[in-house]
Amino acid sequence: MYSIDPFLKIIEIILLIPFLYELNQVFLDILKRKYGLINKLKLNLLFFYHLAFGGIYYIYSLSNPSDSKRYFRVPFNTDKSWFEFLGTETTFIDFISYPFINYLGFSYEMMMLLFTWIGYWGFVYGFLFFKENIREKVKVFRRIDLLTLILFFPNMHFWSASLGKGALIFFGIMLFAFSISKPQNRKTGIFLSSLLIFAVRPHMFLLITIGCLYGLYFGKNMISKKKKIIGGIAALTAIFLFQEKILAVVNLNGSENLVQDFLSFAQNRSESLSTASSGVAMADYSIIEKIFTFWFRPLFLDAPGILGVVVSIENFIYLLLFGKILKLNFFKFWRNAPSQVKSCLMIFILTSVAMTFIMSNLGIMIRQKTMIMYFMFFVIYYYLAYEKSYTSETRLKNISPA
Q: 3-class SS at 229?
């Protein structure tokens, strides 16, 4: 990595932060006029909270291995042109970074700040997704506002506040969740977020598409059969067109036996990850134990360092929140749940099951699950709002805005 005067780094950041803050005000005002749901005070506070985690991650990266260094070094030290980096996964991050580094002269620190800002907008669209679809305010643990708690979970901010895939995929997923709530009016948002998700993590595009199709066909919604058919055909066509890229993620492009080859890949990947310093010997775990490990570990006793302790506290809160839906009444709610709820739970379950087959490393699990936790939080939030409503006959009608 090239050297630069530390004083100049400070000047760059001092100039860029106010610019991004003022840009936020413009965008938030536009969203407020359009949707009327924006709480600028809370979202501005969230911006500085997220910036703090960007600073924490930057300090962490100075003395620890971090992919962010590679994501700056490769497009900086290259003879390739910009569009030679156009591709999926790692090369797509290089493609996004290239013009900022080579045309605008962004330093490593400025790129970290830029991606931190992108990650912040994932939280903004997450906020809109929750507020637009759930009118009830829900408090947990007696007096804590659930949406505020969800927005300020530290682990969610840490892994979406650096140069890399985390910030982009989180932004793409939250933009998609917000846009798909009203697909007739937000086709551009659906298109752009789908492209972003596919470019960063093709397998997530597949899982999200399947989950959305499930919600579309089995959830309670006002979409006509004609539009359901058109949407289903469009989604299946996209999967067919991009199948090679999706399967290539797990080395299955050209496979003649997808199930057997996937299981073989998963076993080899799991064994390689379990040898790492934070590896977990999950080969002999049952599927329930694997999923529990993915959702809730580390949990104090197996916490790797100070970061692990913080994550353990957060995981314990996850466990308490999950416990709130372990009721017979949840199944009654589920039968009549709207498409957004069914899609969110299906995406969460599909992704969790898929990842438990190939992950045996706590560090990777901590990072990867940030992509999907908001889907489960949405289900929990919606169910608690359902319970809070007055009569069972009008519960679901009262929760969502007309």
A: helix
Q: In sequence order, what E strands does 102-157 have?
A: 139-140, 144-145
**Residue 297 has which token pair?**
């570990």
Beta carbons within 8 Å of 176's beta carbon, 6+ residues apart? 189, 190, 193, 194, 197, 208
Q: Where are the alpha helices (DSSP H) in 134-201?
A: 146-151, 154-158, 165-180, 187-200
| Contact between residue 92 and residue 103 where contact means Cβ atoms under 8 Å apart | no
Determine the distance from the C-alpha atom of residue 14 to the mean position of all C-alpha atoms in its chain, rounded to a whole number: 29
Q: How far apart are CA 3 and CA 372, in angstroms?
A: 37
End-to-end Cα separation, the chain, in angstroms: 53
Backbone angles phi, psi at 35, to 5 degrees: -120, -20
Closest CA to 379 of 319, 334, 332, 317: 334
Please state, in angstroms and as integers, the Cα–Cα distance from residue 191 to each residue in 160, 173, 182, 183, 238, following that order: 22, 12, 13, 10, 11
HSE of 111, CA atoms in CB hemisphere, 13 A = 27
What is the rounded average pLDDT of the residues 238-242? 62
> What single-letter DSSP state applies at residue 145?
E
pLDDT digit string, tens, across residues 23-59: 999 999 999 999 988 899 999 999 999 999 999 999 9
DSSP code of 201?
-
What is the structure's pLDDT at 365? 76
Query: What is the token pair recorded at 17?
Result: 């932060």
CA atoms of 10 and 45, how far apart (whole Å): 22
**Rounded Cα–Cα distance for residues 194 and 155 (Å):** 24
Identify the residue whose tokens are 């917000």: 178
Report the C-alpha gap between 197 and 194 in whole angstroms: 5
The Cα 38–Cα 30 span in angstroms is 10
pTM above 0.90, yes or no: no
User: Look-up: residue for tokens 């997808």?
Assistant: 258
Rounded distance between C-alpha atoms, residue 161 and residue 233, angstroms = 36
